[in-house]
Write a structure and sequence with these properties.
With 289 residues, this protein is α/β, with parallel strands linked by helices. The chain has helices at residues 33-37, 49-59, 96-99, 109-114, 132-139, 151-165, 171-177, 187-190, 218-227, 233-243, and strands at 22-25, 39-43, 62-65, 73-78, 81-86, 122-125, 143-148, 180-184, 200-203, 247-253, 270-273, 277-283. It binds S-adenosylmethionine. S-adenosylmethionine (SAM) binds at residues 126-127, 129-133, 147-150, 153, 186-188, 204-206, 227, 230, 236.
């Protein structure tokens, strides 16, 4: 049972009747220290305070009551689910209903990059992030294991999966979520432990910062600041190639060099190219793409 969605009524006689807010400092994310120290968890109603505290306990976090110190960013637990927020910025949340809608025009780059998958085989999304790609693949009938190392992103994902499984995100998202499972941890360690091994591994590491690229929205900039830069992504590609039975697909900005190219990494055997993005394809351990 996910504690996020089973808030208990405020405890009678509790000294914490007001404010109904728990601030939780997030240690152990992979982002910069100063960003971690600025994050909190906030319950929007007294009935969710216990769930917020359960989330804190689950993640091994410290709770402090609102008013102790100002925060710039917070995980907000409300009736609609869990979201990451910053003052004056939009909410960042997992959006299953939107993610399962098919892109118009039939140019589905991600699905083409994954290619043929045997019935009942698994696809691993080893950089799950906010689950957009994973929900999309699952909506095509694929079984998807999501791996995410940031505890903060994994909490958002777990919340999104729970909402989808409950049917609150619509029937398509519910069916997709039934084909998905989430693992929290570093994919370099978890991928080799998957049983059965995935037929295809999808990687979408954070794009390197570039002065030429459009700046991300404030919400996504915050997300990026908290999960970090993924500077170790070339190593993840090596692990993925040793694990995938058939193929590894790596999302890249259209004009970026292949992942790891500057460190003498293997060249991709092909690419699926869109207008702003491409997927580089690498043979897996079965040496097929
Ligand atoms: C650009 S986001 C991925 C977005 C995702 N494709 C989506 O559809 O929402 C990259 C994510 O990969 C995660 N990540 C990077 N390296 C990882 C690793 N070695 N193991 C697990 N997660 C990793 C980061 O924490 C981050 O959340």
């Amino acid at each position: 049972m996910n504690p996020l969605h089973h808030g208990t009524p405020a405890r009678r006689g509790s000294r914490r009747q007001r404010p109904a807010v728990a601030w939780v400092v997030i240690p152990g994310t992979s982002g910069p220290d100063d960003a971690r120290a600025r994050v909190a968890v906030k319950a929007t109603s007294p009935s969710l305070l216990a769930a917020a505290e359960a989330l804190a306990a689950k993640l091994g976090l410290r709770c402090v009551v609102k008013g102790d110190e100002p925060v710039e960013a917070w995980l907000e637990l409300g009736e609609e689910g869990l979201s990451l927020r910053a003052a004056g910025g939009p909410a960042v949340t997992v959006t299953p209903r939107a993610a399962v809608q098919r892109p118009p025009g039939g140019r589905d780059l991600l699905r083409r990059a994954v290619g043929r998958v045997s019935p009942d085989a698994w696809v691993a999304d080893a950089t799950a992030g906010l689950g957009v790609d994973a929900f999309h693949l699952a909506s095509h009938g694929l079984r998807v294991v999501l791996i995410e190392r940031s505890p903060l992103a994994a909490a958002l994902l777990e919340d999104g999966l729970e909402r989808a499984r409950s049917g609150r995100e619509g029937p398509d998202a519910r069916r997709a979520a039934e084909r998905m499972r989430l693992l929290q941890g570093d994919a370099r360690r978890l991928l080799p432990e998957l049983e059965p091994a995935p037929e295809v591994v999808v990687l979408d590491p954070m794009y390197p910062r570039s002065g030429k690229r459009a700046r991300p929205g404030k919400g996504m900039a915050l997300f990026r600041e908290l999960v970090g830069e993924d500077a170790d992504a070339a190593g993840l590609l090596e692990v993925a190639r040793a694990v995938a039975l058939r193929r590894v697909a790596v999302k890249r900005p259209l004009r970026a060099p292949p992942l790891g190219a500057d460190a003498g990494g293997a060249a991709p055997s092909g690419s699926v190219v869109g207008t702003t993005t491409r997927f580089d394809l690498y043979a897996g351990r079965g040496r097929t793409t």
